[in-house]
């Protein structure tokens, strides 16, 4: 496996992209691709070739002259069975090379024996598909260089300086919230693909095809195996069709002829270009790639990001790995030290690895699950002496401990923020630490300490003009007053918080206060208003995908029904809440 040793963590000069085949070997031809024989001009190939060129002509705005591209001789280069990726400088016409910017060139390989039409059509397909994409977590297509009659097909992409996720994680020690941020980015990018008007199945999702940008966000790349998923006449997901299929037939699909090929130390499925270690069982068994196939692979991405391990790292022989994949054998996420700290993520990964594709969650459900896990983009490039930025990470780590009832660990981290941030600097971080200390104290029934922390935080938020912070502390105070049976004060705090949340358009905060008011009304025996508040909160939590809030609300509704002797309704709501608590790891 070719690697480029990083000079420093923020500027890791590693490869931009793995080739679609998944294998990797050193590439030393930086001045141009190795030219195969010219594409012969038979009548049939001319017709197909012209059709491909006509499709490219519709994307003329993206066409780039080879004279505008200069490969960096000393830059990273990685090569696979279908393409190689090199770093290059790109300048627009009539500009000096000093005005250039770095780009990545994916150069498709043409060689003797390769079907001419297939080569041209696969190139056009990838360009057409990428031309329609625009998202923060999807690699950006800059343009293409094409001379198909001589086997030249280059795709010009944005250069992401931190390499792929696997390489990036190997450059330093990353905390759990930083890793979670990369997972959230990946699901956001996948959601963009899966929820388009015509959904797109990526087809080769793995850490090697997820880059890390200069701002330390995850970027999905390599769309050589991607395909559009169109509805069949029967209403189900059809085989899928590639863009431009009406003007020129898509590359031949032969899902039954999937072969396992060993190249170097990478194991690859040929047919559709699937890397064996990440492939879902149904694809290995010959079924077409569909959206649930990406979800299976996304589960492995979570595993890789959290553990720094490839799928089945202990296995090297193709038959051994094939057997594991076909049988759907996956590791136990809860047995890993890092993953075991985040039960919610462990549960999601288990669901992603369901043997039946129909049992896997949708990408929207995946996003809803991971967005509530404390996270922060990796702090690469931030000076170690930056107390404010470091405090942001410590706060997220403290939140993670709090969410799993590790209150001593959480308290220690929140107090650390208060100690390391000097007076006059990092007031937002100080206020947040006080707020979370209030939450920890309230969870431990230390109400006097909780009230003191919330009050300090509220004063600090008011001083710096942070309305959201004020609303959160008012909500916290409402909960503390409720537990001390100070119902008038509790209702006033919740109501004040709700007004601020509504003004800010914060739906989750509004739902939290509705839930709090529901508890107050229940204690006051105002069951009609209690049920109304809980029901409104339930609708909001369901809409925004907050499982924790939804479970709390269902439990509150169950209690309202129970005191009214509506036992069937009470049992139903409590059972629903219990299932959610189990799924998200809240015991």
From TrEMBL:
User: Which GO terms of the molecular function aspect are on file?
Assistant: ATP binding; protein serine/threonine kinase activity
Q: Domain (Protein kinase): give its ranges.
A: 71-373
Tell me if Magnesium is a UniProt keyword of this record. Answer: no
Q: Which PROSITE patterns match?
A: PROTEIN_KINASE_DOM (PS50011), PROTEIN_KINASE_ST (PS00108), TPR (PS50005)
Matching Pfam families, A to Z?
Pkinase, TPR_12
Where does the record place the region Disordered?
Answer: 1-42, 230-253
Name the InterPro entries for this protein: Kinase-like_dom_sf, Prot_kinase_dom, Ser/Thr_kinase_AS, Ser/Thr_Kinases-Pseudokinases, TPR-like_helical_dom_sf, TPR_rpt
Keyword field: TPR repeat
Name where the TPR repeats lie.
Answer: 511-544
Q: Which PANTHER family match?
A: SERINE/THREONINE-PROTEIN KINASE TNNI3K-RELATED (PTHR44329)
Q: What is this protein called?
A: Protein kinase domain-containing protein
Query: Species name for this entry?
Result: Tulasnella calospora MUT 4182
